[in-house]
Amino acid sequence: MAGLQKAKSEETHRRVLEAAISAVEAGGLDAVNIRKIAAEAGYSVGSVYKHFGDQDELLLAVNSVTLGRIREKMSEAIDQADDPVVQMKVLAQTYLDFARANRNLWTTLFAHQLPEDKAVPEEHIQENISLLEFIAVPLKALNPDLEDNFLAARTRTCFAAVHGLVTISLEARFVGLSGEEIDREMMYLVERLSGR
What we know:
There is one protein chain. By secondary structure, this protein is an all-alpha fold. The chain folds into two domains: 1-53, Arc Repressor Mutant, subunit A (Orthogonal Bundle); 67-194, Tetracycline Repressor, domain 2. It has helices at residues 2-27, 34-41, 45-51, 55-78, 84-101, 103-111, 122-142, 148-170, 179-194. Helix 1 packs across helix 4 (55-78) and helix 5 runs antiparallel to helix 7 (122-142). The longest helix is centred in the N-terminal third of the chain and has 26 residues, at 2-27. The model has no long low-confidence stretch (mean pLDDT 92). This is TetR/AcrR family transcriptional regulator. Residues 10-70 form the HTH tetR-type domain.
C-alpha cells in the first residue's frame, strides 16, 4: 500500500512539474499560474501545494530541469573535443544554442528571483556550480599554475562574459549582435578569454 501511494505521489509531482515546464516554455515566467498549472496537470490546487510549497518552489524545480538540460547538452558537446580552447568554444556555442532554442526556459532561469527572506536551496546552488565546472576544467588545463581561488574567479568571469554577450544579443539590445555575427564574435571572445 505504501509503495502504491509513493508511486501516485511521484506521478503527481512529475505531472505538475511537466505542466509548469510547458507553461514556461509557452509563455515564460509570467505564464506560471498555480491554478492553471493544476488544471493542466489534472489535479486540484491543493495537490500542487502538497508537492510544491509555493510558486517559488515550483519555479526552482523548473529551473533545476533547465539546468539539467544545459548540463546534458554541455556534457555531450565537450566530449567531442580534446583541446581546451576548442572545449571552451564548444561550451560557449552550446550555451548560445540552448538559449536560442529554449528562450523562455533560459530567460526564466535568470529572471526568477526568490524573495529576500528565502534562501536559495543548497541543491540549486550546487546545480549552478556543476555547470561552472565545465568551464573550470579547460581553464585549468590552459592555466595549470592557477590557484583554486583564482580559477574560481576566472571561471565566473568567463561565464559572465559569455552570458552577457548572449543576453544582450537575444534581448536585441542596441549593442547586441545577431545572426552569424554573434557566433563569430562569441568565438573571438572565447579566444581572448582563453589567452589565445
